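$ fold --in a.seq
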Amino acid sequence: MHALPPVDTLHRCIREHSRSHEIESAYNICLDLEDWIQHRADLGKEKEKALTHCRILGYLIRHFPSDNIGPFVREIVTISGKHQALLDLGERFYVYFVKLFTSKKGRTPMASSHPSRESVDDLVAKVEDELKDARQNHQKGKKLALIRDGFECVVPKAYDREIVYNNQALQQAVLDGADAKCTDCAHIFPEPISSETTPVGSLPEMNFENNAATVWAVLDRFGYRNLRQDLNGARIHRLENVMTMDTCVRMDFDTLRIYFTATEVPNRYKLEAFREIYLCQRPRYVTLSTPDADKYPLPDPTYLAIHAACAKVAHHSGAAEHIKKVVERMEDTLDLAEDGGSSEVLYTAILSSIYTVAV
């Protein structure tokens, strides 16, 4: 967990923002809250959690994923001095933003039929024909992403192994030295926020519709009012929100270990991480491409920017480490303590259960 840096270290783009004074005021409120928490001896075990929630607010200011930061900092300024209200706000972003992007996700199911053994062009035509009347779901999103991504992982470049096994042209490419890996359909915004998902291992009393509504309300604060319309329901599987990834890369992407940072070159991203080991044997830059931008649109840069912002906030605030510890406890704990001491473990287990089964 990283303490909030001083206000004079805020990025130049923030200091040059039209609302720079208001932004700095909100950030100073977070610094004051952090100092107050650190001097509260009575918080006991709750101190680490309180610091995490506080620092989420501070690092959100530092890494806010849009220029429309005004409503967010005004909300902080409005409740200045109300320590519990500020911590509640931080917790809301912890639960419905950071945990959203680290939620448990199921693997892409295997294709129900074998693709063509002919040329790659024939394979594309066959898959397109199969999907012509198919309803939008995880499986369709996976197949469309495979076509757009050239039947390869976007990081690193390697053909989908199942496709290779059933296509002579790709088999020859692999025999000639090309790589092949097991791939998944990686969602940038995870499936749990869709109103048409099927919860797995969930408790009957959990109201998933209300949870999704709260997630959208939190995301609205970033100024992207069209996110709900763009991604609700089956549209969570739209091509703008999915990429073909090697299973191991997807795991690191889903857990915010790696993220994509836009460069000045359109559709070219720098692959970044908080530990060098996460980038080992992976390219530093990734260029996304498509054979037809209208038919097979590329991943939305805005979605990737929000994912990157969440990764930075989760890491610097300590939220990612806190989630990791709770999940480890969850895996080691089979029963709740009679005194409720494991209530947070149950809470995380419930939240982690909100993911989809692809159909």
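$ fold --in b.seq
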Amino acid sequence: MWYRVLITLRKWKKEAELAALDCGEHLDIYQLRMDKAAIMAEIRLRLTENELSTIGRTGAIAWLIKGMNIENAQDALRSSIRQQLDDPTASQKIMIEEKRQKLLSQINKFYETAMVITNGMELEGGEGLQQDDPELCLEEADGYNFPGINILEEDSILNLSDNADSAAEQKELELRKGQANDCLEKLHQALGDRSVVFQEKLHSNKSVHHQGTRSTKELQKITLAINKHAQEYRRSRAAMQQLGTDSDTLTSYQSLKADDLAVSKEVTEENRCGQGSNKLAWFWRINSATNSQKIYQVNWLKAKVRYDRWSEELKLVQHEMYWTVCWFQNQELMWRRRSGESIKNGHKAYAEKQAFMWAEFAAEGTRGFQGKWNTTS
């Protein structure tokens, strides 16, 4: 075990030495290449191109995408209703009613298309309205309370009876994976934006003038976006479960928890203890197809670079200690020479005073730096 570790370390050291000498593409060993998971657009393009040859008919992929868009429109309508005041105006009620009617029209067209796409197969409807998951209601730290992370449980679009079209279900499963990947990528960006707002506008001593309604609204807007992306991800994961995906996929696409979506303590409490044992939420690592060996190598190489830089800095500081004392001694000798060359008593006294001052500096530096400095050239 330890022998293999030593062999690996020697290999990494040789690669680091080669990179220092030749530079160029050899410096790529310090970069961790992240292969992102396929996004929805890429999966949709691939499935659409292969649709006729695999399923035997066209339009199924577009129909599935239409269903996912309707789900997102339902979420947007729910969000608009939640944000209404207790006593909305007539104009606000009209706006909500128009959105509801537009959504109802889209749903009717969706089911009309379903009869053609599924060749008359019966679709099993859901059981009532889905409710928000109270476990995932999130309150921000430091007294900033915003709408919680409200996640909806949803079924698959192809919730077919026993004569299910397995090929179509497989296509929806792949689309759901792309949907989940898109949601996680957007969560990365939104959580990063929220951390920046906390760091630069709410918890920075240099930005007191930002701590007001404007920053709070900006943070609330970002939190609503996090709600939306988390809600869509949870729905796509529930659909994958409904479609009977394998356990490995569900292990990769884990459930979202409120703690996963909270602001990192490294942002709100920079100097707190115990940061070394912290772990990032699982979704920060899901899009990395890089093996652990490469991750360890990059971390080790960067740690070695820091060690080498600190070692070099230590040598410079040790030499600077010696050079500083030598400079004090040189100043002392220069003023003593001036004292010996002085004719007037006033000039001589001033030169002796300066020589004594520099001698004290040299003596103090010698006492303070003794055993720490490097006297070699």
